[in-house]
UniProtKB/TrEMBL annotation:
It is an enzyme of class 3 (hydrolase). The lineage of its organism: Bacteria, Bacillati, Actinomycetota, Actinomycetes, Glycomycetales. Pfam families: Amidase_3. It comes from Glycomyces tritici. Its EC number is 3.5.1.28. Keywords: Hydrolase. This is N-acetylmuramoyl-L-alanine amidase. It comes from the Bacteria. GO terms for molecular function: N-acetylmuramoyl-L-alanine amidase activity. Residues 84-196 form the MurNAc-LAA domain.
Amino acid sequence: MGLASLPFAGSAAQAQDLSLNANRKIFLDPGHGGHDPGAVGNGLREKDLTLDIAKRTRAILDDHGYQTRMSRTSDVHVDLPDRAAAANAWGAHVFLSIHINAGGGTGFESHREVNATDHTRRFNSTVHRRTIAWMRQTASITDRGTKETNYVVLTHANMSAVLTENLFIDNEANANLLRSPNFRQDIAIGHFYGVDTFFN
């Protein structure tokens, strides 16, 4: 699949969606960076994968008319509270933090803060459902479900915030998928569709 499968074939609907999306601010947060590599395994580093996926997601959102910003666009360290603070200062409508898991498991999961609003629960559910659907076009992916966790970037964000854990870097089969640019593109498309479905 890939970009050819995305909407916008050139139509009045395309112009309408671009107009609607122009006022929607999406803040993307690639996990870790700089002196903090995040999880490491099978020759991969979380900070590299999350930045690549976030940049791919941003490119698709930009192509569809959304306003986007990122907590980092290069290999630098950003403190956790500062990530949420940047989204708050900008007035983002949603906050999406992208991570890779570790610890001996397998599959995809996503997180929202404890006692999240219905709006955030719906955002979480939509991003989760659409992202794993795109992953599953390539391989059989375990659905680890949605979870409630008081991570700093979630609790400090003033808007609906979700954190995704995109497979396990220390699982060889998962790592082999993450190593593929095509699979990382599918993850990005899934994140895009999660956002786009939520708004549209």
